[in-house]
Amino acid sequence: MPKTIAKTSARLVGAATLAAAVPAGAADLHMQITLPEVQVASYYRPYLAAWIEDAATREMQGTVAVWYDTRLRDNLGVGFLRDLRRWWREAGENMSFPADGVSGPTRGPGTHDVVIPGDSGILAGLAPGDYVLAVEVSRENGERELLRAGFSWGAGENDAEIQGSKEIERLAVAVTR
């Protein structure tokens, strides 16, 4: 088990035991991602895919967000999603774009908040248990980075935070009422 997931899991165990049990449908999943300001001659906003995996098996449960250049004519931005290699192999190549409630435009440097309602999409059918929010980012003329932050679904409020090193400055996930 990678160190970042082990550290996150330890934090989650403590948070889950202290929090009151909340039915999974009554909770929301909050993702906060900070994209760094990169000092380069020509900056291109990164493409991003976020999905939920089972913490034990790493089996993908479903995609929760895809950011790509939606303004390119003839939907050409979809072609560059292949650079999000891990996500593309697991789910991307089988998806139709734009994907309702999942896809959106790329975003620039800064902190971005995404709230995924617990009663919709992938979360509506997610069984209580330990999961990982995986976020993969790739930027043209830049690098690729994949971060994973663990969380417990259906066990009450809990959160986790991971620091990135290249294309993601920080990833935070929280389960809230």
Automatic annotation (TrEMBL):
Pfam families to which the protein is assigned, alphabetical: DUF2271
Range of residues in the leader sequence: 1-26
Superkingdom of origin: Bacteria
Keywords per UniProt: Signal
Protein name: DUF2271 domain-containing protein
Lineage: Bacteria, Pseudomonadati, Pseudomonadota, Alphaproteobacteria, Rhodobacterales
